[in-house]
Amino acid sequence: MASRIKADYPWTVSPLIVNAPMAGFAGGKLAGSVSRAGGLGLIGSDMDMNRLASELEIASKIIHDSPNLVKASQDTLPVGVGILAFITDIEKALPVVQKYRPRAVWLFAARQLSDYKTWAERVREVTGGKTKIWIQIGSVVKALEVLKLCKPDVLIAQGIDAGGHGFERGAGVISLVPEMRDAMDANGFQDVCLVASGGIADGRGVAAAWALGADGIVMGTRFLAAEETLIHPTYRDAILQGKDGGQFTVRHKVFDNLKGPTIWPDGYDGRAIVSKTYRDMEEGVSIEEIRRRVKESEAATGKDYGVEGRTAVWAGAGVGLVNEVQKAGDILEEVRAKSMDVLRGAKSLL
Amino acid sequence: MASRIKADYPWTVSPLIVNAPMAGFAGGKLAGSVSRAGGLGLIGSDMDMNRLASELEIASKIIHDSPNLVKASQDTLPVGVGILAFITDIEKALPVVQKYRPRAVWLFAARQLSDYKTWAERVREVTGGKTKIWIQIGSVVKALEVLKLCKPDVLIAQGIDAGGHGFERGAGVISLVPEMRDAMDANGFQDVCLVASGGIADGRGVAAAWALGADGIVMGTRFLAAEETLIHPTYRDAILQGKDGGQFTVRHKVFDNLKGPTIWPDGYDGRAIVSKTYRDMEEGVSIEEIRRRVKESEAATGKDYGVEGRTAVWAGAGVGLVNEVQKAGDILEEVRAKSMDVLRGAKSLL
């Protein structure tokens, strides 16, 4: 499968590292920088196609500063674009995809699985199959359904340690990745790549995901501390201060309900830091009162990030492993080197 | 750290594999068989000291059939004993520990962390330090507190994919193990072993846990399918049928409330299969009515295990990887061989 990764993303260095397409955070600068450093950079989902196009322009400029990358990109833009299928107008998005030909479109949160089929077919149509279809999934049964519907090029197995939005019920990558790989292999999908996401924040996690059978790995929270990420300084401070990730963060639907009823489909929630808002909810404060408090504190402070704040701060359970601001390229280099060190150490066991 | 494992459990083969001390399931036959096959076998917690002693007798007989194991056991019984600290009377347990000198006492679910100190001191006292202290923990902050209180020989980092009882809030081993190891190293506890637990069910998981920095791994659900485990046939059938582990199982407090109010301290819940009882709860059925239904169906059927049953069936998110009944020794051999295969394959990356 390493050969398929190398064929489809020929500029990448093994093991494949991808930044999560974090909406509002992962812009063209991060995506371009990640791809330039031998990963696959992703631009986060955006409903506003002008903004999405302008982030693609930014990525394109970074890519074009690197002739080798352009050469290796096989007539595509060697970054990917995240699409939140339930709120993205396909008719508006397709012309942007057609124009920029990102190497990957990463689909997530369709209202129904059949929507992935529509997206996959139409994206393939407008880019002559040059744009690879990535689909994010959290269940083995649904993975098989999606594979049968539209055979994506890559499945992203998202475990419950992931920050931001994900599946309300699920497993960590330790169980999810091997079971999904087995099910794919047993059902004739040996040639579909599997990428692990959720809770991975350093080279040890990358080596572990590889051992579990993943062809690549996604990091989100780690890239919140990348210099190139679009992020408010106090949001980033909250990430850097986070320790004991499974206690510091929690999955809950309340974080999507702070401005009014959630717009997300059923079955999704999100992992964010345990904030004043979360503690209010635990203490039984009504959602109306929570919303009032969020509004009040945001009126006073703009955004109110942090453990003592009320605005949602999305972060994964790996947040305790994220301790410094670094260039995206340095993150990739450090994580790759560490993962290789770990695997080299296996010799002592063999 | 491999050297400390080898020194303390000299009969074991690397990587160290341990069966979870599943109360009511892991008896002397399983524990003895696991140790005889080069792992560390554990007997599950039991409040009844006569029953615990009789399981220790069973383990002892298996051990004494193996002269090499006896020789390597350094004047202890080379198995461990699980202790649920919140319900076990230390005065009754200590004479049993003193008599059998198990190589390890695995402590879990103390009402307060200081109880671990009492247990650690008194167990060490009655066995002259021959019995190693293992403590199961799910948070980095609490791990450090426990280390400072009584410096156990081993910490078990239990991730949220684990079946049965565990911590209501936490992370998967993918995040928990590396962060805990870093915190231990940074605080002067480099010489304490760290064992990973939760969601690991095959050689890929073992290799992954090793990459994350674990000195050994625990499997629970996989051993529910061991021939030597004490388990009802329909319970085992439910385990073997489980697929898509993150959907088939769920963590919830309801499973501890089926006979009456839970006896567990705050902060704990358990992962079990999504049963009729769980679906009743999701549909808003009151706990009184849930209890009535459980009682009724158990009166009719003895125990009512399975997806269509009402009795709690504890299982981890790795349940989808557990597909056949095997001898414990065969499980160890297969899992170890696979983990070595995986790590050997790393050469292709390096």
TrEMBL record, chains A, B:
Q: Which CDD domains match?
A: NPD_like (cd04730)
What are the UniProt keywords, alphabetically? Answer: Flavoprotein, FMN, Monooxygenase, Oxidoreductase
Instruction: Fetch the Pfam families from UniProt.
Output: NMO (PF03060)
> What organism is the protein native to?
Amylocarpus encephaloides
Q: Does the keyword Oxidoreductase apply?
A: yes
Gene3D superfamilies to which the protein is assigned, alphabetical:
Aldolase class I (3.20.20.70)
The record's section on InterPro entries has:
Aldolase_TIM (IPR013785), NMO (IPR004136)
**What name does this protein carry?**
Nitronate monooxygenase
Superkingdom, taxonomy of origin: Eukaryota
The GO molecular function terms of this record are: nitronate monooxygenase activity
